Amino acid sequence: MINQSNAKGLKGLSRAVLIAVIAFVLSVAIFATTAFAGLASQYDVRIAVDGNEPIVIATNETEPIEILAQANITLTDSDRLDISSFTAGEGGTIKIDRANSINVDFDGVINTYTLYEDTVGDALASLGISISDDDIINYEMADAVADGMVIKIKPAMSVTLKADGESAKYAIHQGTVSDLLALAQVTLGKEDYTKPALDAELKADMNVTVYRVEYKNVTKKESVAYKTTTQNDSSMYQGTQKVVTEGVKGEDEVSYKVKYVNGKESGKTEISRKTLKAPVNQVVKAGTKKVPGASDVKSNGVTSKNGFTVGQTISGRYTHYCACASCGTGSGMTASGKRVYNGMPDPYYIACNWLPMGSVVNVDGTNYTVVDRGGSGLSTVGRIDIFTPEGHAACYRYGTGSCTLQIVRLGW
Description:
alpha+beta; six-stranded mixed beta barrel; four-stranded mixed sheet; 16% helix
């Protein structure tokens, strides 16, 4: 027999359990729905640091900083963030470029730079440094940039080598002139040399020249100068001379050892000499007889001037003048500054326009000095006017005539 009171209690308990189960089921359903909703809002984001292989994370964050924090990535003040390829809630790529400090050793000169490029090639390009095939560098262009790295660059020097008639440029990093010759495969003979010398250090834009030295024996004929012998002759006036025997050059056959540098003669040494024809010496007679007039004639060392030569003989014509007003200005002052006057001792002066002032000429055995000029008639070669201190009457008495002049001195 069933207890009614207990039956009622069981019935009430079953209802409570049922409600609890239903509540549990509902709560599980709500949790599942919320969880699936959370899973459904996640998306994939790629994160690339310094050009390395990206990492991929699943996130439901929309802020790049939060996404990076989720990936345990911390940004510094010098980092550069690129989100141009990222869309919040959809995905994409977040790029991070970290600044690197690198040192560039350019032929011994070191500079430090901070940059974001990923490879050595890109870093040098950003600095405006170009590398040629002849340069030496301690990294490949594709190597990754690392903070604190030292990039060493040894640029090639351009030097010019001139040898055997040809000129060529060579790229070389260091060394001496001797190293350059080895690079160019140029060898030197025993006497050959270079400028600069073989041990000279190479410098950029240097010019190096190879000098080839050779010797040849050369035989040729040469003229031999004659000597002049002077003989005194008391029958001739001082300042005059006469060639008695004309000089004739001789001829020798001479052999030389000739030095040639790059094909051009630079010196020679006589090996032998053979006389083919002996020279004939010239003999000259010089007068020692005292000359009337300006006999104290001092040589000035001038042998020729204005087309005239010492010792030259000229056919001329003479006239006479004195210091009176009729013959000139009457002042007594000559063109050379010498003063003349009538009654003075005979100074043996002449006037002419064709010889240098101070010249001495022998006129028919008497020496006269040119101290004055005159009219256009005295410009004719050989034409002279002889000063006569005896006065105007004497000029008429001595008159005019032809004469022979020999040049004793030209100028003072």
